[in-house]
Amino acid sequence: MSLDGKVAIVTGAGRGLGLAYAQELARRGASVVVNDVDAEATADAVAALESSGGRAVAVVAPVGPTETAKELVSTAVEHFGRLDILVTNAGFLRDTVLWKMSDDDFDTVINVHLRGTFTTVREAVQHMRQAGEGGRIICVGSPTGQRGNFGQTNYAAAKAGIVGMVRTWALELKRAGITANAVVPVAATAMTATVPYFAAAVRAEANGEPMPAFFRHDLGFGTADDVAGLVAFLGSDAAASVTGQVIGVGGDRLQIWTHPEAALTAHRDGGWTYDALVDAWPTTFAGAAQSVGERFPKLPEEFEPPTS
């Protein structure tokens, strides 16, 4: 099933995962609006898509402001006549522990990831609803937004918020035939290149070598191209019934994340007072307490980063 005749916007598409998404969408027949803040990277991305036979146009602007969202949608319509697919991928990191995180560290990450997703999706669905032909909203989450990660208060908040919005949009947009899903990629990117745990996998990709099976299969960690197929699928007519889902993908693994559900329910006549909780917590509730943070298997010895 091709994407011939479809038109897509991909934010943060100058390099990395966003570029891989744009390339796969174009390969499947979609015309693509390529967005990034880096003018040179954006121009290179458009040239790469066109040299492979695709149709593409650039919008160099930061996501977050409503003006950028309007420019992205108007560019799609003016150049290609319609808008069918939006992939909100743009983002970056400003990692530090809570007590050292500045207002600017927090606000900047929230503005790009969370507000940028909100404003761009809002503008896109206004057009899609008016056009009356449905559409596909594909937002990018993160394992950090699902489970938390040390030093990433701002990023965790943004990515968890994106998933919450996607679940809400799936309800609000159903009647209009517009799906909304979140993709949780696990791949070698600039964001993972500095993590020692992934060093052997990142090094293999950089050298053009096959990524070790431990990373691809056991860990579900792969290349940007491993994620792109899911993005193209969610943008296609084949995924018309898929909405409100959070789907993790990396290497050889694909996962559908559960939506939060109560792990334990208990009732007490008169309610749960302080004294009742002191008595009952160790025996009734403690066993259902949930873990936090990502859980990685032990690295095989051959992939252990060298110690200094």
UniProtKB/TrEMBL annotation:
<feature type="domain" description="Ketoreductase">
    <location>
        <begin position="6"/>
        <end position="194"/>
    </location>
</feature>
<dbReference type="InterPro" id="IPR036291">
    <property type="entry name" value="NAD(P)-bd_dom_sf"/>
</dbReference>
<comment type="similarity">
    <text>Belongs to the short-chain dehydrogenases/reductases (SDR) family.</text>
</comment>
<dbReference type="InterPro" id="IPR002347">
    <property type="entry name" value="SDR_fam"/>
</dbReference>
<dbReference type="InterPro" id="IPR057326">
    <property type="entry name" value="KR_dom"/>
</dbReference>
<dbReference type="Pfam" id="PF00106">
    <property type="entry name" value="adh_short"/>
</dbReference>
<keyword id="KW-0560">Oxidoreductase</keyword>
<dbReference type="GO" id="GO:0004316">
    <property type="term" value="F:3-oxoacyl-[acyl-carrier-protein] reductase (NADPH) activity"/>
</dbReference>
<dbReference type="InterPro" id="IPR020904">
    <property type="entry name" value="Sc_DH/Rdtase_CS"/>
</dbReference>
<dbReference type="InterPro" id="IPR051687">
    <property type="entry name" value="Peroxisomal_Beta-Oxidation"/>
</dbReference>
<protein>
    <submittedName>
        <fullName>3-oxoacyl-[acyl-carrier protein] reductase</fullName>
        <ecNumber>1.1.1.100</ecNumber>
    </submittedName>
</protein>
